[in-house]
Amino acid sequence: QDALTAELTEFVDCARTGSRPSCSGEEGLAAIRVAARVLESVAQHEWDGHPAGAIGAFPREQAPARRSAA
Predict the structure, then answer these.
(1) Of 48, 46, 52, which is closest to residue 67 (Cα–Cα)?
(2) What span, in angstroms and rounded, lies between the C-alpha atoms of 50 and 16?
């Protein structure tokens, strides 16, 4: 079972039975805050890229085509 399915299954079980989830609301909020900081950092990073790969993250514009490996 993938992580999202497991999370949703636990949520439905908690809603049906009134049991406590394995992750508290405070822990969930802390995880969301960390994820937001990671995404913000990635968006601000200037990527160097490499000959056979993508140049980097372009959240607000279209990424350039991949360069061919020479």
Answers:
(1) 52
(2) 51
Per-residue model confidence as pLDDT tens digits over 6-37: 999 999 999 999 999 999 999 999 999 999 99
Quote the pTM value. 0.52
Distance CA(52)–CA(56), nearest Å, equals 12
Query: What is the secondary structure of 7-53 as a DSSP string?
Result: HHHHHHHHHHH-PPPSS-HHHHHHHHHHHHHHHHHHHH------TTS
Nearby residues of 43 by Cβ (< 8 Å), 6 or more positions away: 57, 59
